[in-house]
Amino acid sequence: MLMCGIAPVQQMLEHTGAMEKVRPQDVFIGPTEAVLDYLSSQYDDAGIQELLRSGADSLRSLLQASLASAHLERNAALATIAEGIGQGIKRS
User: What DSSP string runs through 31-73?
Assistant: First the structure.
């Protein structure tokens, strides 16, 4: 997998012949597209949902733990974000 790099990097890869060995479907615009493609090739829908749930749970826990040390004016915003994380993820 390869993310599109800046023009000089792309030119060097083409000049050295490296791009001849990279399939067009393995070149991505950015990290999000590369990760999503990798996940969809390695996991079924239930597996991806479980990974998303796990990540959301971890992020929620980190945000909740940071509430105690956050400035008062940020507590409400952080609490709202923590509550909303993972709401769109399907539950099995």
Answer: HHHHHHHHHHHH--HHHHHHHHHHHHHHHHHHHHHHGGGS-HH
- Dihedral sign computed on CA atoms, order 30, 33, 35, 37: negative
Q: How far is CA 62 from CA 5, 19, 31, 79, in A?
A: 32, 41, 23, 11
3-class SS of residue 84: helix
Read off φ and ψ for residue 27, nearest 5 degrees.
-105, 125
Q: Which residue has the higher pLDDT, 45 or 88?
A: 45
Q: Using an 8 Å Cβ cutoff, are 50 and 35 in contact?
A: no
Q: What distance in Å separates the CA atoms of residue 35 and residue 79, rounded to the nearest whole number?
A: 28
**Helix/strand number for the chain, H first, E second:** 4, 2
CA nearest to 13, candidates 31, 27, 34: 27
pTM: 0.56
